[in-house]
Write a structure and sequence with these properties.
Elements lengths: L2 H13 L2 H8 L3 H15 L4 E4 L2 E4 L1 H24 L8 E8 H18 L3 E8 L1 H10 L4 E5 L7 E16 L13 H5 L3 E3 L9 H10 L7 E4 L3 H9 L5 E4 L4 H5 L3 E5 L6 E9 L6 H20 L5 E3 L35
Parallel strand pairs: 3-4, 3-5, 7-8
Antiparallel strand pairs: 1-2, 5-11, 6-9, 6-10, 6-11, 6-12
Helix pairs in contact: 1-2, 1-4, 5-11
Length: about 350
C-alpha cells in the first residue's frame, strides 16, 4: 500500500467521481483508476462502485476512508514538525468537541486561539459523542473533550471542570415549584427526552447510572433525539422535559422559553476533560492548545459565563470530581446559578 494510493482514494471520495478527482489531482484518469483497483485488490474488498454519475462508497470503503484521512493527517503533521524549530508553536490541531459542550467552549476558545496562538491552525469538530469517540480512536482528531466516564484505553485524560445537570421543562409543563429544586422521584414520575443510546456517553449514561444507583427506574422515554436544537424545541413545545447542562439552555432560560431546575442529587453532574493519544507525539501546538483550553475553562467558570460549571479547585461540595457520584453534602438552599427567576413574569 502506497501513500499516493491513499491520497488518490481520499481525493476520489471527496470529489465524488474519478474524472473530477483526476482533474483535481493532476493525474490521468486511467492511472487513477489503476491505482484504486490495485488498492482494492490488496485489501481484498471493493471500496468504490463506479457509475456514469460518479462513484458510490461501499461500507468497507467508508471505513477505509476514515483511516486513510487519519494516516494522511499524521503524515502532514510529521512533515510540518520536522521543518519547525523545536521551540516553535506552529502547526495544525483538530479539537473534537461534543455538542453538549460546544455552546460554552467553542467561541471563547476560537477567539483566544486567534489572539494567543496566531501560528496554530485550530480546527473545531462539533460532533455527537459516539462519532467523536470513533474519530479520536482513528486519529482524525488530535484532542477531544470528553467526560471521565468514557473508557479510553491508550489515551490520557486531563480533567478540566465539573458541570451540573438540570431538569429542563417547557413553561407550560407543570412542576411542584416554579424554579425550585426537584428530586429524582419527581423526575422519575414523568417521561423524559434523552439522546439515543449510541451517543449516550456525555449525558445519558450518567443519568442512567444515577437512577440505577438510587434504586429508581429510568423515566419512560418520550423520544430519543440526537440534535440539541431539535431536543430543545421538543421540550419547549411541551412534549416532555429533559436533563441537560445549564449552559446548553442558558439563552432559552433567560428568555423564559424554558425553565431549569437544580436536581437534588450529588451525582447528577459530569467531569469534563481533554483527551489525547499516548501513542502519538504531543506537538508544541497540541500542548499550547491544551494549556489555552485549560485557561479558558477556568476563566469561563470563575466569571460565571459557563453557567452551572465549576473548575475542579472551586467546585461546590457535592459536585462530582471524577465522574463518580460523591456522597458529600450539598447546600440545599444554593440558588440556581445565573438563572432568571421566571416566576416574576407569570
Amino acid at each position: 500500500m502506497e501513500i499516493r494510493q491513499l491520497k488518490y482514494y481520499v481525493g476520489i471520495v471527496d470529489c465524488g467521481s474519478v474524472s473530477r478527482a483526476a482533474q483535481h489531482l493532476f493525474v490521468a484518469q486511467s492511472a487513477l483508476s489503476k491505482q484504486i483497483s490495485d488498492l482494492e485488490q490488496e485489501l481484498g474488498t471493493q471500496l468504490l462502485v463506479r457509475a456514469y454519475s460518479g462513484v458510490r462508497v461501499t461500507e468497507s470503503g467508508k471505513i477505509f476512508y476514515e483511516y486513510a484521512q487519519a494516516i494522511l493527517k499524521q503524515l502532514n503533521d510529521a512533515r510540518a514538525a520536522v521543518h519547525c524549530a523545536p521551540e516553535s508553536i506552529v502547526g495544525s490541531v483538530v479539537l473534537g468537541v461534543p455538542q453538549s459542550a460546544s455552546a460554552a467552549l467553542a467561541l471563547p476558545l476560537l477567539q483566544a486561539a486567534r489572539e494567543q496562538l496566531p501560528q496554530v491552525s485550530l480546527h473545531l469538530n462539533e460532533e455527537l459523542t459516539g462519532n467523536l469517540l470513533a474519530q479520536l480512536k482513528q486519529g482524525r482528531v488530535d484532542l477531544a473533550i470528553f467526560t471521565s466516564n468514557v473508557p479510553l484505553a491508550d489515551f490520557e485524560f486531563q480533567p478540566l471542570a465539573t458541570e451540573a445537570f438540570f431538569w429542563i421543562r417547557g413553561k407550560h409543563h407543570t412542576a411542584s415549584s416554579e424554579t425550585g429544586d426537584v428530586t429524582l422521584e419527581e423526575i422519575a414520575s414523568q417521561p423524559l427526552i434523552l439522546s439515543a443510546a449510541q451517543h449516550a456517553h456525555c449525558i445519558r449514561e450518567i443519568i442512567e447510572r444515577v437512577f440505577g444507583e438510587s434504586g429508581l427506574p429510568l423515566p419512560p422515554l418520550a423520544a430519543e433525539i440526537n440534535s440539541v436544537h431539535v431536543l430543545k424545541s421538543a421540550v419547549q413545545a411541551g412534549i416532555a422535559p429533559t436533563i441537560l447542562p445549564l449552559a446548553l439552555v442558558a439563552q432559552e432560560v433567560d428568555e423564559g422559553r424554558l425553565i431549569a431546575h437544580r436536581i437534588r442529587h450529588a451525582g447528577m453532574c459530569r467531569t469534563l476533560g481533554i483527551c489525547w493519544s499516548r501513542e502519538l507525539p504531543v506537538t508544541n501546538a497540541k500542548h499550547a492548545v491544551c494549556n489555552l483550553l485549560s485557561n479558558i475553562v477556568k476563566t469561563l467558570c470563575e466569571s460565571g459565563r459557563w453557567r452551572g460549571a465549576s473548575t475542579l479547585e472551586t467546585a461546590p461540595a457535592g459536585l462530582c470530581s471524577d465522574g463518580i457520584a460523591q456522597s458529600m453534602a450539598r447546600d440545599a438552599d444554593m440558588p440556581l446559578p445565573h438563572c432568571r427567576d421566571t416566576s416574576a413574569t407569570r
